Amino acid sequence: MSEPRVLDVSGLLPYRISNKSPLWLGQLLMCVIEGSLLCLLIATYFYVRLSVDVWPPPGVRLPSVMLPTVALIPLLASCIGSYLASEAAKRDDRRGMLVGMISNLVLGGIFLALRGIEWRGLNFTWSSDIHGSIVWTILFLHTYDMVADLLFTLVLIIIVASGHYGQKQRLGVHVDTVAWYFLVLIWLPLYGVLYWGPRALGAK
Amino acid sequence: MTALEELRAEPQQAEELARAWKNRPGPLGWISVTTHQELGMRYIVTAFIFLLLGGIEALMMRIQLASAENTFLNPARYNQIFTVHGTTMMFLFAVPVMEGMGVYLVPLMIGTRNVAFPRLNAFGYWIYLAGGLLLYAAAFTNTMPDAGWFAYSPLSGPQFSPGKGVDVWAQMITFTEISALCVAVELIVTILRLRAPGMTLNRLPMFCWAMLVQSFMIIFAMPAVMIASTIFLLNDRTIGTHFVNPAEGGDPLLYQHVFWFFGHPEVYIIFIPALGMASSIIEAFSRRPVIGYPALVLSLVANGFIAFGLWVHHMFATGLPQIGEAYFTAASMMIAVTSGVQIFCWLATLWSGRLQPTAGLHFIFGFLFIFVMGGLTGVMLASIPLDLQAHDTFFVVAHFHYVLIGGTLFPLFGAFHYWFPKFTGRMIDQKLGKITFWLLFIGFNCTFFPMHILGLHGMPRRVYTYVPEMGWGPANLLATIGAFIIAAGGICFIANVLKSRRFGTKADPNPWDAGTLEWSTSSPAQAYGFIHLPVVASRYPLWDQEKSKDIVTGLRNDRREVLVTTVLDAEPDHRLVLPGNSIWPFLTAVGFSIGLYYSVFAFSGYWIATALGMIGIIGWFWPRQPLDIRP
Question: Against a cut of 0.90, is the pTM above it?
Fold first, then answer.
């Protein structure tokens, strides 16, 4: 029997703030879960669309295209904030993290405010008919995710601003941006389906 | 230090590790546990308690059906009992017990100390427990759901199912899904990133492959049931959405589509881990590497994919376009190919091996026999004309019990007998184990074989009685007798576990002389698993002895540190300090559950769940000393 050999790993880093961290993969999988949920809702949208003749039902105005389209600008811009925050987290640049996260929070907040205004203009609710049910469900779930993510961003801002943080919290800042990118990216197909889909299929 | 010096220092290092991985005493310590063996065992024990409850419900149904026009249960009670039986077995037993086995065994099999997200693991367990308590709290306060385990609308809608039973059912699903999703995420990350150095994906034990495939399936399938049960059904019932209400443009078939888009993969989520267990047990007890490792892995992966293209075969009787249905027939038959490949690989392994006729192996033979029979009726049911005749008859009941009990419960019992020494440190009584097997095997066939014939003679499922003129009495009586033989097997199993746990002979680390890593740890495994993480150079490190001695050094023993490796080749990447025990996962689960319980009554429950869950998660992630992770 030969002498056993050793693999010495004491020289390796005891943490890693990058996409190679297991936490990043975990966050990605959480996004996949949420993504399959929303994709199934897109399928549901077209399923119910195809099973009725008139869409939206008589008397219901389609959600306007204008406001959500304008809202895309702060939404896409907020990703820059996320990007800056995650790069700053890798460098342990406290100011950079704060600037990135705060701009993310503000721009995300503007997007949500615009969505709030849009909701006040809708002339249907989730209980008026099937069109209302599916549109509200998609809007609600996506908004809920966004609000939750922004709240956690706020918590991270407080932690980083207090200076009471270490590598784990920096990793938190980094993977938080993954969730935000996901919420922005998944909104693009949802936006297309909700606002352009019915118009492309001939509704007014 | 050289390897020999390291190995000589092991007793001292073990002491250090034990300190770092110790759980605090007392009830507060008990609910703060985040170690995978403890949580895995809690999953398994809890799931077996639900199995017992589901089994009692099954016996009640069998007593009712034992003779024509029996009055043991009234029709309403019978509906409740079969609903709770199905729900318990699918959501509270079968999925969680597989998750528990995975949580317990995967880290040991891949050579690490814990799962990648220990606190998520704890949260998942508490949420699962909360869901189970919700269903049984409802059962004991007489608000049982009664619309079947898949709760089709319009029967389950507000019009035909007043009361809170169906709402409880719908929200109970959410609990078990969240729990399953937590475990799926953590097992995928554990398997992909925490494997011992050298354990390339090509050397991953079969059971871990099965858990990997199953976890990915959970990630894509479980969101569908949340949509069906909470977004469609519960919201229709509580806040007046119209997803399954045809009067406002909704469609009951939509519910069926989405439910079965989950429901069919669900069956594979339950039985793919069992296939992994079967492979592990077969290779250990036939003393040879399993034949056709690549074929087996590819079959598992293919099963995972095909499972998502089968759901309409549950809906053949709904009048969908025939051309579409034909596709699903073909896809359903395709499953027989991938399953057949696995069966032949196992047979070849058994044929060419030196068999150890242990209790564990008995269960595998039972599995092969019963599962193949269930598979054959599955191929029959995939054919639309036959399915239309047999739909909603006892033939279907017989079929799915053959595949689910044969395909899942038998390998699971085999696995329990096989890994018992690792769980408890003692050997399980082989004689009693074999008696358990024969009681279950004979009882099972007595119960479910007659159901094929009853179904072909037209006996519908889910009816609480029948008239004597139908001539179904004798077969039903036989099935009831069989059910009691199964119950005797269950009692024998429980007795064996209780007895062997206390009085069984002490087990060596590797009593079966098996080849995979979990058998290189002490029996029972310590909380930290390995004193030195192993370095792996083959698929069966313990069978290739001289290679298995290579070890990892340089991990700190005074904190919960593991080694992160790369996804494909398992090359060391960095070290990772896992979080320790914490009460916050428990508190988060409690807060979340309070809100979700309330959401059965009003939508505002979700706001409560959000607020309390948020507080819990902030506490969970709040920075703790030491902030800096020092090398």
Answer: yes
